[in-house]
UniProtKB/TrEMBL annotation:
Group of enzyme by EC: transferase
Keywords annotated in UniProt: Aminotransferase, Transferase
PANTHER family registered for this protein in UniProt: ASPARTATE AMINOTRANSFERASE YHDR-RELATED (PTHR42691:SF1)
SUPFAM superfamilies: PLP-dependent transferases (SSF53383)
Required cofactor names: pyridoxal 5'-phosphate
EC number(s) reported in the record: 2.6.1.-
A Pfam entry, by short name: Aminotran_1_2
Annotated CDD domains: AAT_like
Domain Aminotransferase class I/classII large: 34-389
InterPro entries membership: Aminotransferase_I/II_large, NHTrfase_class1_PyrdxlP-BS, PyrdxlP-dep_Trfase, PyrdxlP-dep_Trfase_major, PyrdxlP-dep_Trfase_small
UniProt GO molecular function: pyridoxal phosphate binding; transaminase activity
Name under which the protein is recorded: Aminotransferase
Family: Belongs to the class-I pyridoxal-phosphate-dependent aminotransferase family.
Length: 401
């Protein structure tokens, strides 16, 4: 009895989620410590203490007020979220990135996923095209399908995993409404270079003029703060006028279950006023209504907090060096918490299945629109990384590496 749309979604059900469930089953069978589950991007470091303190303080403050007839922190609010929360985030961004936002430029969202969906609902008509750079976060397909839009895939340079800009230029059409950029990238860990972003901006400007259209660059940036080796946190609005930002606290404060993030619409974006109003309405009519109230206020008190980047950096070095030494070809991650590994055989699904024999769980590259590679999410304990290396050695031996 399910709809045709959902029947299709069920057939292509997320490879990552399926792998996650398989991991749970293997852990029950072989013991948690004997399964090396690199499948899911669930942060491995706890949320900062300040965040839990802020939640407690907020509840105590709300209880202390205790006004009957007023729901206070538990009540409905404007669909965009609390004004003081948006203003605090705007000021934090301005301080860090030299922008000039106010509360008016922000809408609080139900994570990055909620943010992308309300942007898409606001800008997409059926058959519109959204360009993505392979490899990409697989759910973009479903988000575009929610609004009957099409995903158009641009190939990467297979050495650097920077996008192929000639391919980008050739794929922009009069129906291109948006290009999604995700840097630091899931699944490669690559950061797009400032020159790459400048070139992307120039191509989009040129194509807008050619077709007489507006093309939005959507910066999907849940990993903005997760950068290594002296790489700087970047904010993409400076490269191109029509840039919209979708941010999430899921990874930066280890809060994926709380569902909190925001969208930024800069004043200089085309039709900014209409966009903001559209995004607010979409937040309501898609059923989110508003981002969760308590956690909005809590993150606003923790904007100076950072996740434990050093923790992930240690896993990154150990896994990258360990696997490279074993003969695997890996892209050195510059950010996020993923390692992108070339499959020793063309069909990476075969490689993934071989890995399972040694209790290694990896996600196939085709789930990210890029077969021939696999993704390892190293947001796991140091012990899991360390204890997985002998299993990877056995896997390497299977392929004579
Ligand atoms: N975009 C990318 C690139 C992601 O990796 C993720 C989650 O892993 C999301 C969006 C969704 O994030 P959220 O949990 O904030 O909805």
């Amino acid at each position: 009895m399910v709809s045709k749309r959902i029947q299709k979604a069920l057939e292509g059900n997320s490879a990552i989620r399926a792998m996650f469930n398989e991991g749970r089953e293997m852990a029950a069978k072989y013991g948690e410590e004997n399964v090396f589950d690199f499948s899911l991007g669930n942060p491995a470091t706890p949320a900062p203490k300040a965040l839990n303190d802020a939640i407690r303080d907020l509840l105590d403050e709300a209880d202390a007020k205790g006004a009957a007839g007023s729901l206070g922190i538990h009540g409905y609010m404007a669909n965009a979220g609390y004004e003081e929360v948006r203003q605090a985030i705007a000021e934090n961004l301005n301080e860090r990135f030299g922008t000039k936002f106010t509360a008016h430029n922000l809408v609080m969202t139900v994570g990055a996923a909620g943010g992308l969906n309300i942007i898409f609902k606001t800008i997409l008509d059926p058959d519109d095209e959204v360009i993505v750079f392979a490899p990409f976060f697989g759910e973009y397909r479903q988000y575009a399908a929610n609004f009957d839009a099409k995903i158009v895939i641009v190939q990467p340079n297979l050495e650097t995993f920077q996008p192929d800009l000639a391919d980008l230029e050739s794929k922009i059409t009069a129906r291109t409404k948006a290009l999604i950029v995700n840097t630091p990238n899931n699944p490669t860990g690559v950061i797009y270079k400032p020159q790459t972003m400048e070139q992307i901006g120039a191509i989009l400007e040129k194509k807008q003029a050619e077709f007489g259209t507006d093309i939005y660059l959507i910066s999907d940036e849940p990993y903005r703060e997760l950068v290594y080796d002296g790489n700087k946190e970047d904010f993409l609005t400076k490269y191109y006028r029509n840039t919209l930002v979708g941010y999430s606290f899921s990874k930066s404060l280890s809060l994926p279950g709380e569902r909190i993030g925001y969208v930024v619409v800069p004043d200089e974006a085309a039709d900014a006023e209409e966009l903001i109003r559209g995004i607010e309405i979409s937040n309501r009519t898609l059923g989110f209504v508003n981002a969760p109230s308590l956690i909005q206020k809590a993150v606003a008190r923790c904007l100076a907090e950072k996740t434990d980047v050093a923790f992930y950096d240690e896993n990154r070095s150990r896994l990258y060096e360990g696997l490279t030494k074993l003969g695997f070809t890996c892209i050195k991650p510059e950010g996020a918490f993923y390692l992108w590994v070339k499959s020793p055989v063309e069909n990476e699904e075969e490689f993934v299945n071989e890995g399972k024999k040694f209790n290694l769980l990896m996600v196939k590259g085709s789930a990210f629109g890029c077969p021939g590679f696999v993704r390892l999410a190293y947001c796991v304990s140091h012990e899991t990384v360390e204890h997985s290396l002998p299993a990877f050695a056995k896997l390497a031996a299977v392929y004579g590496l």
